[in-house]
Amino acid sequence: MGRKCISGLLACCLLLFTLPGCWDARELNRRAIVSGIGIDHSDGGYEVSLQVIIADEISGKTGRGGTPTSVYHASGRSVVEAMRNVSREVPRLISTGQTRLIVISEEIAREGISGLVDFLDRDSDLRLSTKLYIAREGIKASDIVSALTPLGKITAYALVQKTDLAADELGANFAVEIDDVLRGLLSPGGGPVINGLNFAGSPEKAGDKGSLEKTKSAGVVVIDDMALFKGDKLVGWMNREECKGMVWMLNKMRKTVLLVKPEGDEEEITLEVFETSTSTKVDVSNPRHPMAVIKVKPQMSVREAGTEIDLRDSLALDKVEKAANVAIARKLESAVKKAQQMKSDIFGIAQQVERTNPKAWKRIGGQWEEIFPAIDVQYEVDSIIRNTQMRDRSYKYHFKKK
Amino acid sequence: MEKTKISSLQFFSMLLLFQLGTALVVNVGILAGRDAWLAILIGMGMGSLLFAVYAYLNGLFPDMQPTAYLRVLLGKYLGTVIGIAYVVFFLNKASRDLMDGGLLVIASTLKETPLLIVNLMMILTVAYVLHKGVEVLARTAFIFLVVVILIGIFIVLLVLFSDILNLNRLRPVLGNGMGALLLSVYRQNYQFPFAEVICFVTVMPSLGHRKGGMKAGHLAILISGLILSGAIAATISVLGVDITERSVFPLLTMIGKASIADFIQRTDILVVMILIIGVFFKISVFYYASVMGMSDIFKIPYRKLLYPMAIVILLLSVTLAGSFTEHLAKGGKVLYMIDPVFFVAIPVFLLLVGFVHSYRSKARGQGRN
Fold first, then answer.
1. Taking CB atoms and an 8 Å cutoff, what residues of chain B touch A17?
2. pTM of the entire structure?
């Protein structure tokens, strides 16, 4: 009897450990969900702006008619310290598990992002799939996370969607996530490329709820061109052409539009590239002076032809394809020239050499910074026009006959 | 104690889960950098050979605990001393695996829970199952194997369809030459997790069908080697070798990257589940091995030893190392400085003694006829 009593008591005591549930569980109503983080420069450290989701406003029923997100700021000497300092303002535990966007101001990027990347890499709440952005000069990262968006409720998530969509449809950028940046930082003689963000309209008004009450929003965050890094420092911005060329070089191009003027024609034809692949071959037989051959195979369809051209005629199509080849090669070349001018191997040609010829790489790897700008690059583009959409000739074809 | 019987399939599931256990989640074989997957395959081959050695020793004395045949082969005194050394060794491994599991759970999910509490929950469960006997453990293994296979299939599909694999990151193969690869195999790959199956020599006497069991054992080593090698290759081709090298739990980081259409994502909790299941079996088998050894050497009933040993393992797990860094550093050194003695030297020595022994007993048998 006594033994049974004691073992019963013991079992009850042990149950006490399991019954309270998870030791450090914090339910949703005790958490502040951060959707985006903006990092600006402040005296001797970083100023962190957290875009926190206000769930009551999103669900609709219990809303007070306020904004769907709210922004909290604090400064600190390191990112983590700044984040902890924010807790003076926020009544709930800050959780970054759902964060999908991190904006860094251009000022920091120019000085070097190495100081804050370790946090992004190490933190166990932040996923490596969080996307990184640079706020263009003159714009604070805090303005970006403070902005409201007409379509969708949470700016950070809307921006991430904009990035993916622009990458799919226009092909002048691609989503850059934390691990992409890390690999870029570590690539010899290279650096990452990161999407830029800019405002269409005024940054001040974009955070005003009034801006949502007009059809023409007073300020919208837009995806800008991409920033080119050398090591951990931003060294320049690419223009739209160079961006497209770079996306093509990296074989990340999915769709894009291309305006070409075939030989002997007066008006431009708009082509849509809907399928393309790029392959890079590097020849290091002369280690001081490597040669690279870039082969691109795009497939396109005709989207706009404001000319009298007869697209039933395969010779005419040949002309268009040739013009497209030249146009694409020019884009690629502009991107390569820019990278070589900045002496930053953003295309990972170094890794390409290491992969295909590890022995040669061991010899020349140390001097890659001097070798990269001197690489001779050849472009071989082989465009194919697959279809012409719903019509073969433009309506203008009939003017030609008369 | 009544005679327990374990089927070959149950033995297979135990071995498979045991090997996947911590090895799937912690940073294994990464000494070889990009060629980690190759190093694991070579380690698997060596592990398979060692398993054949252990199986042969069991074949000499099919119904005896290893501590018992140690005394037969090496004499009463030396046999007992080596038996006690093995008991301590298994105890140490059990508590290390308990700490591995506890630390991952803390690092990934229960951030503010004390290590002692997480470990306590784990060791209580293990002790309970072992109290029911090794047969129950084997049946549990089969049930959990099904769960792990389902999770595994889901993870494989997720990674394949989320378009994050870039096999180029595995190239160049053997960029640092064969030497670096073999050094890595020597330092860690054959011991962890393949040679660790040595603790199964205490389970082998309970096998219902010995020959089938050994075949199942070899198959389990082969399959676990392929899975581990595939997992590390996938992780490197998603993250690149640098991030993988610096990750404490690379698979967890890799799964964090996988998402299908922003809809199926954040599945890393599945990896934590696999780890908890695997760690459970790792601790169980090491724990069982040490308790069986001790009960055989000191002639104390198995069940009486079970709970006191649970407390020993629990306390060891929180005191062996003060930090995760220390834990890993010790583990890494032990792996090639002490483990080979237990995994290779003593068993191979026993193998030679066993040859002599079986030859002599055969000769004696013939003499009698």
1. 117, 120-121
2. 0.84
